[in-house]
Amino acid sequence: MKEIRINSDFDVDELTSKINAIMSKWSIKLLDINGPDWAIYTYEMDLKYLIHFNVDFYDLKIRIKLEDLKLNVIHHIESLRDETTYRDNLINLVFFE
């Protein structure tokens, strides 16, 4: 498993490209978006990548960037026309301390 840590100064377009490149690989099955942790699994459900966002979920600008990123990546996944899928739980009260 490869872990990628992202800080609040991330560029949405650049990160979208990186995640889309990962999601386009034939071995990738699922993107599980769960607040600050985005897990990418293979068809065998082995965790391949963990993208951890070290960001403040109270910051509205950061949440907008995360939503933009999420929508970009979901749009790409849906355009793949294969069995690659996603699960979305980006914003949930449990992520607010």
Quickly describe the structure.
By secondary structure, the chain is of the alpha/beta class. Helix 1 packs parallel to helix 2. It is globular and about 35 Å long.
Task: Looking at this protein, list some descriptive labels.
5-stranded mixed sheet, globular, alpha/beta, 33% helix
Can you tell me about this structure?
- This protein is an alpha/beta fold.
- Helix content is 33%, strand content 33%.
- The protein has helices at 12-23, 60-79, and strands at 2-7, 28-34, 37-42, 47-54, 85-89.
- The protein has a 5-stranded mixed sheet with strand order 1-4-3-2-5, with helices on one face.
- Helix 1 packs parallel to helix 2.
- The longest helix has 20 residues, at 60-79.
- The N and C termini lie far apart (28 Å).
Helix and strand topology:
Elements: E1 2-7, H1 12-23, E2 28-34, E3 37-42, E4 47-54, H2 60-79, E5 85-89
Parallel strand pairs: 1-4, 2-5
Antiparallel strand pairs: 2-3, 3-4
Number of helices: 2
Please state the average pLDDT score: 92
The unreliable regions are none
List how many beta strands DSSP finds.
5
* Helical coverage, percent range: 25-40%
- Determine the N-to-C terminus distance: 28 Å
Structural class: alpha/beta
Which strand order does the major sheet show? 1-4-3-2-5
Could you state the order of secondary-structure elements as H and E? EHEEEHE
Q: What's the overall geometry? A: globular
- Beta content comes to 25-35%
What is the radius of gyration?
A: 13 Å
